Amino acid sequence: MVTIADYKGKVKPDWCPGCGNFAQLSAISMVLANMGIEPKDAVIASGIGCSSNMPEFINTYGFHGLHGRLIPVASAIKWANPKLTVIGYGGDGDGFFEGTQHFYHAAKRNIDITYIVSDNQVFGLTTGQASPTAAMGMKTKSTPNGNIEKPLNPLDFALAAGATFVARAFSGDAKHLQEMIKLGIQHKGFSFIDVFSPCVTYNKNNSYDYFRSRVYKLENNDKSDLLGAYKLAQELGDKIPIGVLYQKDEKTYEDYDPIIANTSLVEREPVKITEEHLAEFL
Amino acid sequence: MKNDEVIIRVGGAAGDGVQSAGLILARVFSRSGMHVNTYNYYQSIIRGGQSWYQIRASHREVRSQGDGLDVLIALNKDALERHTNPKINEGGASPLPKEGVAIMDSSMTGYKEFDVDYTPVPLGEIALKYSKNTLLKNTVAIGAAMGSLQMNFDILADVIRDQFGKKGDIAEQNVKAAKEGYDYYSQKYKKIKKDLKVSNEKRYLIAGGEAAGLGAATGGLKMYFGYPMTPASSILHFLAEHSTQYGVFVKITEDEISAINMAIGANYAGVRAMTGSSGGGFSLMTEALGMAGMVEVPLVVYEAQRAGPSTGLPTKTEQGDLMQVIGASQGDYPKVILAPRNIEELFHLTREALNIAERYQMPVILMVDLYLAEHYETISKPDLEFKIDHGKRAQDNQKDYRRYAYSEDGISARAIPGQPGLMHNEDSDEHNEFGDVVSDAETDPTLRTLSMEKRMKKMETYAKEIPPTPTYRADDAEYMVVQWGSTQGAVEEAIDILREKGLKVGGLEIFHIHPLNRDIEKKLSGRKKIIVVENNFSGQLNRLLKSEFSIKTELITKYDGESFYPEALSKEIEKKIGGN
């Protein structure tokens, strides 16, 4: 019997009090425990940024890599050992600036990992610069006169890339957040969950109140409707949907590749190279 | 020109099948029990241009592309004129001498004539007898070339049949066309008189990239990640083609950054994985290379140099990446750099690199160059026995597990995800023995110092097992020629030439680039002159040697995109010896 206590890390999170990341840390821990996944079988790969410090604070196998590069690491871990539950976890700066093309290609490949982005529209660890999801006009250290760049829309980006599970959650709604993470992990294929996660220190605009007054839960939407999902992804005004926008059953990259399909490379012995293999060089 | 070896060169445009013709010829010699060394001169172009492929063969060892030319197969007029012109300008290749023969199509006219033996063969005409198009003319030319040397036609026929294996009819058409070319030449022209000894013992003929792939597979490789870039593509293609046979997962990634991060992820998960690129792609990998050093994940990177800087000469060789590879990534971290000297060594060092990387939990970079990666050589039968060493591994549920436990040798036991009771974090931030970060709230200068020393201690441990630096005819040598990587063959043959002239010249061959074996200084001491030979502009190894040892050196460089040729190199060495 796995409990949430099993997932408690020995290092205390050093995020600012009130940071949206806390809710995600407990949601991930709770979902993994409730799903009966043992800590030894869970890997969290992260990039660089406040949120990416998470692997330290949770008792799983963790890989805290480079800024923007968590997806290649997570992908290869899954390919090497399909028995593991692999979660990629990082921020919007990490994932949608330097990590953009990895994100796109992992979605396209439909690798069976869950990618959770703590989206706070700002760079936190580097003390407050505009992130790729920062709103137009937002004043930050890097945009003292206001951001003049359109924000990236992570959901329609994921949909365009071919992600087979696209959802949004909000750190201010823990129960719903847990539900999204659970569905994401359960989904076989690339799952993307964009989580509104207020940065209480560097982003005074996108606060808990800001999101709380805007988000509404999707109910009974047709999750197989790609165009419908695109439309929902554009709702970023007074009403912002949270929930599963899109989900599709599709073969994963692993299913297609004969070397890793139904095989755990970490357990399989290397192929013994024999005289027969050498014949072609004679 | 040496009597106990033969050099054949096939010249034509890209798309003419120059390389496949060359490979058929190379295979005939290797199956005749001879040693073979090939050279590929080509451009970054799919059709057109001017490329050539050279095969040097002998019953004794041939360690480079060599000097001289016996038989030229000119597939077009341009090739004929280029290679018969005494003022040939192909990066050091010899022109066809007076006693050589030039095989070309009888219909070729109006070419500039030089003092060589032209031996026209109706290549196109014969080809058309067996096929609707003239594609077979290369085969006819191959037949003629084998006729000029009176090689056993049956062996050629077998090679052709294997080449066209599945297409039975086409294979037989080719065999017939080759036979007619062989007979035509034999009846009409003089034979090349050579003292070539053949035997029934076939030799293994393999390209550098293939040997690296085969070596890796025998070394337990299970995953390879890469992005196309000449000349690192040859290992990628080879492994992709052999993916099923070797059980190696091969993935083209969105960029080289992804390739190396994937290789790190796979190794972290407990699976032997490699990545590779040329200098440009390698420069994208450097941040992650340092991470592998920091998180102590095993990693082997195959770095195939081409002529730089920037996009440079994509199809040309150079040894210009040494400083980039030595200096790759920020900060100090443990790493090993190996530069195999020949294809057989590349086979062995690739799998050895996998063991070193895993035993020491650090990156190992295999530096090759275009010449080494792409040319073919005969090698002794590959030894398939190899002991895979996974290094220190933690026991399941081991008490008080510390992923980065300080130890005498700097190496700590790894835990692989899935092992019970050993959950921990591997961190690119500075961390303590447990893997907990000491870069933020827990900043701790003492722990930082200890962690740095722990990692770097691996270099001290490793230093004890660096193999001795090989020498060549060095015992009584007054002059020492220092080389690294693929220039071994040309340098040794240059030394042989100088020895025949009575000059006491020897060689020091550095395949272990980092860390350098301290024996180098001793092996170079007491000599009259030390001459460093490098295929780059600034003499990068020379700079390194001078910063590590108190030695005085002279430098010979070549940076025209081609390899050294023994004869020309011997003259340059002689000049250095002569001058004071």
Quick overview of this protein structure:
The complex is a heterodimer of chains A (282) and B (580). With 282 residues, chain A is an alpha/beta fold. Chain A is built from 10 helices and 10 strands.
Description:
- The complex is a heterodimer of chains A (282) and B (580).
- Chain A is globular.
- Chain A has 10 helices and 10 strands.
- Chain A has an 8-stranded mixed β-sheet, sandwiched between helices.
- Chain A has helices spanning 21-34, 70-80, 92-98, 100-109, 154-161, 174-186, 208-212, 226-234, 253-256, 275-278, and strands at residues 42-46, 61-64, 85-91, 114-119, 122-123, 129-130, 165-170, 191-196, 215-217, 240-247.
- Chain A is of the alpha/beta class and 282 residues long.
- Chain A has one domain (4-281): Thiamin diphosphate (ThDP)-binding fold, Pyr/PP domains (Rossmann fold, 3-Layer(aba) Sandwich), CATH 3.40.50.970.
- Chain B folds into 4 domains: 5-202, 3-Layer(aba) Sandwich (Pyruvate-ferredoxin Oxidoreductase, domain 3); 206-379, Rossmann fold, CATH 3.40.50.970; 393-465, no CATH class; 471-578, Rossmann fold (3-Layer(aba) Sandwich).
- Chain B has 19 helices and 21 strands.
- Chain B has helices at residues 18-31, 77-84, 123-130, 137-148, 153-163, 168-188, 208-218, 233-241, 243-246, 256-268, 279-295, 322-327, 343-360, 370-374, 445-463, 488-500, 519-524, 540-548, 566-578; strands spanning 5-14, 35-41, 48-58, 71-74, 101-105, 117-121, 204-207, 223-226, 249-252, 273-277, 299-305, 336-338, 363-369, 376-379, 425-427, 471-472, 479-484, 505-510, 512-514, 529-534, 554-557.
- In chain B, helix 10 runs parallel beside helix 11.
- The radius of gyration of chain B is 26 Å and the shape is globular.
- Chain B starts with a strand and ends with a helix.
- The mean pLDDT of chain B is 96.
- At the A-B interface, strand 2, helix 2, helix 4 and helix 10 of A face strand 7, helix 7, helix 9, helix 10 and helix 11 of B.
- Strand 2 (61-64) of chain A pairs parallel with strand 15 of chain B, so a sheet runs across the interface.
